[in-house]
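agent> fetching stored inputs for the zinc ion docking request
agent> found them:
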Amino acid sequence: MSSHIVLTSHPQTQRNALTGTQIHWGASTAAERGPIIASLTTPAQRNAIGSHSGAYAVYRALAIAAGRLQADHRPDLTDTSPAAAIGPHPQWRDAQRIVSMDPWGHLVAAEFAERIAAGEDIRPTIAVTKAHINMPELLGAIAAGRLTPDGDILNANGDVKVTKAAIDPVWYLPGVAERFQIKESALRRALFEQTAGMFPELVTRPDLKVFLPPIGGMTLYLFGDVAQLGRPETRVACRLHDECNGSDVFGSDICTCRPYLAHGIEVCIEMAQQGGVGLVVYNRKEGRALGEVTKFLVYNARKRQQGGDRAETYFARTECVAGVQDMRFQELMPDVFHWLGITRIDRWASMSNMKHDALVQQGIEVVERVPIPDALIPADARVEMDAKVAAGYFSSWVPDANELAQAKGRGLNE
Ligand SMILES: [Zn+2]
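agent> prediction call returned; pasting tokens
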């Protein structure tokens, strides 16, 4: 690493960067689209804003600062290629369809092999592997006779075969701005200011259209034969899940996250056993993308408010602390379905009207919506469920005003 600090917005760097390969977002092949180079080992080749690995870029910086990682280290991509083939699908060639991930992100080692060998630092933003998963709820479903082991997709010991994909965010800024129906310049300015000027190129380099933001990405869990995706006859089941560490991992009882996730996986396994494909999309958008600190503050405010925790004030308590009810913004969410070539979801294990409407808006058909079975809703999660249903969540019943005014669940210290 050179001893002087290189400002990415510095005119000298700018001139160099202009020699980097241009990105033609939505081009029909990886070669025509061009590699996305956000690595810092070759500043002259950079053609994107931001840095690889999302939020983990900060740990990389720490590792370099602490002397544990060479700043010029480049990944050796030998044997890292996808464990299952995904795409290319026609949606990859549409600049408007996919704007928040690189559809070629798992294929860069193969598609740009010669350029990498020639010294360009081109890195994958997607990795695809295979695994077995096992959750106690699945053993429960087998014991209750809802699931039947087949010795392939689902074993008697509860092991489930999956293909999984990790996806880092790659934003095509004009496309992201268009989804939110805002000006690209307004988007760039807010991103620059709200990261305290972390990425000056957002405002100094309008010619650079691609941004790797420092946020969490997503993980896909696929059940069944992934090669069937993209065929119109393939039936698809899906649970789209936003991270809730408290419930998902630790089983905390104030929401329905883990029970709904487990139910969604059950629906996915059934679909795979019937010859279709099951898909769980797991987004790192903790606490409606407000983060856990905000989330826990809201829990306290809900439990301590006068009149107790009740559905009629559920969204107001979040808004008091966060200023908004939700920052997940489903506008970018459909991209991953386009990436997988999915145009129809036969069984959709989600009650969210926002998620449903975002998919339909993007031309993806939702055939059957599968709500969480009532028996799986923890007692303390009743307030959240009632509030969401009253606000438009998919359900066969709607609570009345009297119901919404009832305090429910445990006290803060119980
Ligand atoms: Zn939750």
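agent> quick read of the result: The mean pLDDT is 93.
agent> awaiting further instructions
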